[in-house]
Amino acid sequence: MTDSNITATLTVHGETYELPVHSPTAGPDVIDIRKLYSDAGVFTYDPGFTSTASCDSTITYIDGEKGELLHRGYPIDQLAGKSHFLEVCYLLLYGELPQAKDLEQFETTITRHTMLHEQMQYFYRGFRRDAHPMAIMVGVVGAMSAFYHDSTDVSDPHQREVASHRLIAKMPTIAAWAYKYHIGQPFVYPRNDLDYASNFLRMCFAVPAEEYEVNPILSRAMDRILTLHADHEQNASTSTVRLASSSGANPFACIAAGVACLWGPAHGGANQACLEMLEEIGSVDRIPEYIDRAKDKNDPFRLMGFGHRVYKNFDPRATVMKQSADEVLELLGVENNPKLQVAKALEKQALEDPYFAEKKLFPNVDFYSGIILEAMGFPTSMFTPIFALSRTVGWVSQWKEMIADPQNKIGRPRQLYLGETTRDYVDIENR
Ligand code: CMC
């Protein structure tokens, strides 16, 4: 963080205060209000953090106007096109692209941590079969705190490293087993000779009666889905992980909090909600009715998979995801899938509508990811768990950065209180 030469001047209650302004390496300058309350006795008010930088970070940068997403400076389209998920994991965690030997060692480490403690199976069996896989994941990820005691001391850098590897390595197994339990099939153990994405596909789709041949095009598409969702700066679930960990809570509990936050339909749950919306629309001729509903202020309905808090021109992840959707659907011979037809027509009609143009609403990454995942054979309930497994590396990288930061303090926002002021208790008979 560099101090710029400028300061911001704030006048409040007749007094003037000079506030330092910091210049980032990219993005808007940031007014430092850390001493505002102690100096001026006022708070700032910013529900939803639309104008507030909650931390400093060197991991991910988004320029919402340009539609740019950088991980450690590398554009997402280059990473999605030339790299692969585990290399991006290394980049996010350690800040640089790995040398060949470092990557090999990292891949070996992740591969050797993919099994779950055998006792965790019984934890799964405590859930109802119809439990949503995200509900199971929130529970099982949190339960890792009870199984891996040698990686819960956050003050020990070695334990933090082990916890990071365990989370990235075990998340595919946790997600795949949530799915297997949900559909009543036996758990499939991880296999070390497969790459990360292929191993996940196999754990989801193999059965003891028949081996699952991983199609390399599907495995590549899955790897790309994972890469595109790997991190996204200080979004709701990442901020949840940071806030939870600011108290010194153990890593597994913090990541479980991130999984819980991600589940919401305004965040990671949008991919499931989007597919359900396409199903509900059902046919191209019903699209205008849904577009009218999305525009109606008195109707809470929104076009799922449209809009983004930060991107205001396009979502660069959606551009890559759309290409991937075309490839996968062609490979699987399902280009005429009715939901895809509705999706394509909906995208076109919404983009031509002045309401969406004025509000800068366009398809986000989740508009296309669900279409690919459904074509691969995943039920809608697995879309958000797959997002959670991809985002784990982002949560972990941001968590590690935060714990190692000497400025780390417990997160404790203040409020604009609008309730009653002090009043005396009234006995029940006198109310
Ligand atoms: N359909 C119709 N209108 C919308 C939509 C939508 N999808 N999104 C925003 N608007 C309108 C909204 O009604 C508001 O109108 P007005 O100014 O007249 O009140 C305006 O656009 C701004 O909306 P906002 O809710 O203030 O914007 P936000 O930055 O708080 O919300 C969002 C961003 C992503 C939550 C929102 O666009 C949304 O709910 N989209 C649908 C859910 C979705 O696809 N989420 C996935 C995001 S990408 C994956 C991820 O990062 O998790």
From TrEMBL:
One of its GO terms (molecular function) is citrate synthase activity. Keywords: Acyltransferase, Transferase, Tricarboxylic acid cycle. CDD domains: EcCS_like. GO terms for cellular component: cytoplasm. Pathway: Carbohydrate metabolism; tricarboxylic acid cycle; isocitrate from oxaloacetate: step 1/2. The active site is at 308, 366. One of its GO terms (biological process) is tricarboxylic acid cycle. It catalyses: oxaloacetate + acetyl-CoA + H2O = citrate + CoA + H(+). Transmembrane segments: none annotated. Belongs to the citrate synthase family. This is Citrate synthase. It comes from Ruegeria atlantica. The gene is gltA_2.
